[in-house]
Prior knowledge:
- The structure holds two protein chains of two kinds.
- Chain A is of the alpha/beta class.
- Chain A has helices at 15-26, 55-58, 64-77, 140-149, 165-176, 195-202, 262-266, 304-319, and strands at 2-11, 32-35, 51-53, 62-63, 81-83, 87-91, 96-101, 104-115, 119-121, 137-139, 157-161, 180-185, 209-210, 213-219, 226-231, 244-247, 250-253, 257-259, 291-293, 330-334, 338-342, 345-346, 350-358, 362-363, 366-371, 374-380, 383-384, 390-396, 405-410.
- In chain A, strands 1, 2, 5, 6, 7, 8 and 19 form a seven-stranded mixed sheet that branches. A five-stranded parallel sheet of chain A has the order 10-17-11-12-13. Chain A has a five-stranded mixed sheet with strand order 22-20-29-25-26, with no helix packed on it.
- In chain A, helix 1 (15-26) packs parallel to helix 8 (304-319) and helix 5 runs parallel beside helix 6 (195-202).
- Chain A starts with a strand and ends with a strand.
- In chain B, strands 1, 2, 9, 10, 11, 12, 19 and 20 form an eight-stranded mixed sheet that branches. In chain B, strands 13, 15, 16, 17 and 18 form a five-stranded antiparallel sheet that branches. In chain B, strands 6-7-5-14 form a four-stranded mixed sheet.
- In chain B, helix 1 (13-22) packs parallel to helix 5, helix 2 (61-80) packs across helix 8 (347-363) and helix 10 (414-421) packs across helix 11.
- The model of chain B has no long low-confidence stretch (mean pLDDT 95).
- At the A-B interface, helix 4 of A face strand 18, helix 9 and helix 12 of B.
Amino acid sequence: xxxxxxxxxxxxxxxxxxxxxxxxxxxxxxxxxxxxxxxxxxxxxxxxxxxxxxxxxxxxxxxxxxxxxxxxxxxxxxxxxxxxxxxxxxxxxxxxxxxxxxxxxxxxxxxxxxxxxxxxxxxxxxxxxxxxxxxxxxxxxxxxxxxxxxxxxxxxxxxxxxxxxxxxxxxxxxxxxxxxxxxxxxxxxxxxxxxxxxxxxxxxxxxxxxxxxxxxxxxxxxxxxxxxxxxxxxxxxxxxxxxxxxxxxxxxxxxxxxxxxxxxxxxxxxxxxxxxxxxxxxxxxxxxxxxxxxxxxxxxxxxxxxxxxxxxxxxxxxxxxxxxxxxxxxxxxxxxxxxxxxxxxxxxxxxxxxxxxxxxxxxxxxxxxxxxxxxxxxxxxxxxxxxxxxxxxxxxxxxxxxxxxxxxxxx
Amino acid sequence: xxxxxxxxxxxxxxxxxxxxxxxxxxxxxxxxxxxxxxxxxxxxxxxxxxxxxxxxxxxxxxxxxxxxxxxxxxxxxxxxxxxxxxxxxxxxxxxxxxxxxxxxxxxxxxxxxxxxxxxxxxxxxxxxxxxxxxxxxxxxxxxxxxxxxxxxxxxxxxxxxxxxxxxxxxxxxxxxxxxxxxxxxxxxxxxxxxxxxxxxxxxxxxxxxxxxxxxxxxxxxxxxxxxxxxxxxxxxxxxxxxxxxxxxxxxxxxxxxxxxxxxxxxxxxxxxxxxxxxxxxxxxxxxxxxxxxxxxxxxxxxxxxxxxxxxxxxxxxxxxxxxxxxxxxxxxxxxxxxxxxxxxxxxxxxxxxxxxxxxxxxxxxxxxxxxxxxxxxxxxxxxxxxxxxxxxxxxxxxxxxxxxxxxxxxxxxxxxxxxxxxxxxxxxxxxxxxxxxxxxxxxxxxxxxxxxxxxxxxxxxxxxxxxxxxxxxxxxxxxxxxxxxxxx
Lengths: 411, 488
């Protein structure tokens, strides 16, 4: 067993891990180690060869690899240590991590741990698509890695299910590669990815978007041969007589992402069932003191820019050894029209950065924050859609707020 | 033309069991398997239950081989290293009327020679299975579980190591008999043999038709399954069966824990026309979940990580009640042509006993001499995730690939994937890897590990990306390179 002691250990070298590592180091942590299961740094970024990264944060549009490079360079400059091809097997409430790599088993003791494990893609079975089980069914991210990193052609005639961002990006990418991209099928009445991606990836390349449609059956005993799609009503029930068969050799699934928290659950960290990520306070500290969470294992972000911003906050507070804790804690409750809100709890008086998602598109919505029925904050937005995360800041004085906060969106 | 003493058509659990028994003797034997690997038909897609023998009529071949096979499996597991767990099963009755059926089962079971059967009340069931409630239940302690594909692979691989030839992706297209030899035409060339064993499962009628007029029919009956995430493994401890429905000759939708910690829900029973139609259907998925919840109400809706179906080879139609006994016989027209027909459940359990029976039949033609250098080797199933830290460290020191995790969900290392791809059968599909070391079988269903396995296939095994397959000869994964690199 190789024993290591650190100030801050970060699980995952994707954008969340990198940004939090740099921030922890700049805020005084002496020894910062980042663990990653792959043999490269940057997580998913190296396969995201499209641009659009860093627009809000840096004022320029970078590709995924370029964006990752900025942070990797910064991290190396600050002497952050990386252990790649290193898989964390478990960690516990005493902040001990067991990991494994080619040198053997590692036992890592840290002052703080930052969880940055990212997310995984939903599979065919998460949405229970019946039919045959042929080759040619890929999740969009896996298809992206084969195409972009390994130079492998995954198919010739492609249909995409789900208008999540990865699916949209892949529709355009595979069109660039000369493949026949037949369209994107979306069960919702609106696209589920960012509006700019719908325009830039589909509309600009005449790739059809079939709204209110879903895949009802997969056909092909060896390689995929065709897919049946049908129109759905507002309760997502298939409308009889609308089924049609589309001949294709590949089906890409972009049907959602699941924050990767199997390790967190084993360590008994409390998970928010709405986000799928750990319940955190305003400093991104989880239910286990000293363990922080950031990146897509906390919530699935829509841009790397806002992800990095929160990850830096997590890194900053993870670097502080002794945190002043008030004895009080209030809950932040998602109210009307809100699918989730982070932080889920507040235990210190400070300026709190809130992120939330709405359940459905709303024109000119007003964010309202209430405590004990008393409204003490409201803000009007131009519009809100589930694909766009809503962010706002609020000074919270726990002496003034004596009960839980309820955040809602209405008109 | 290659000449064999014995040719077996079909590398399922029956063909592989026979091959293993054959490998003990000084013989030239061959197995023709049309798929890319053994166990790729019905043998991989079932409940993986080691049946006790309470469900088949006394005096039937099904009952005989089930009870005999049940006793042979443990010693076989010790030799070959596949996993077996004697978890036992409860047949749950919901009311007094159903409880009467339990009495019938116990009677048949006792007549068939099954030991340890007893009827317990709902309270006792509840103590052992806190999530299950029922009126009375039949407790069957001699029922167990195994991984059907692991069992078949272990048999086939060990048979290969003892010089039985397994020809994968080899489809028999025609058979004729000339003098004392069977002439077998396949897509991989022509072969001849002295004896011919028809263990081709659902295709058994087609093989018979090549030589003589069949006096039976095959009625494919599809069974769909759902697989639950391992994190719900503690919902049950033993197998939970309903009282068998009085139709179709099946046991009803039941809950089966697996060796790996998943729970299986199924199988459904649906007679279909096409024996290859292994699809899953929306309606059946819903029905399975509904029926499973009647047995186990606490199954969460989001607990399903996969679904599949397998096809039973039945010799009786739905109208005939769906139940028929196995037909195991040597042809009267073509001497040396041994047929194994309609080997459906409990065929997995019965396989070792059926194989011994076939050896007896073979010995009437050939003087069988035991092989001096017959060796059993334990099928490599030691998992990194199940080892002690000390074992893990020692292995990593010897080979650093034990320290590289390729499949996160199941914690499978690169060394285990390399071992799987180095199997003696030469099976190299993605599913071959999955069934040997479990990479890709977890909750992300290959989202993370597939790309790593592909890299191992490419770099370590020099496989062309166009040759990589998911499971069957035509299930190619890719279509060449995305871009031509000029200076590559």
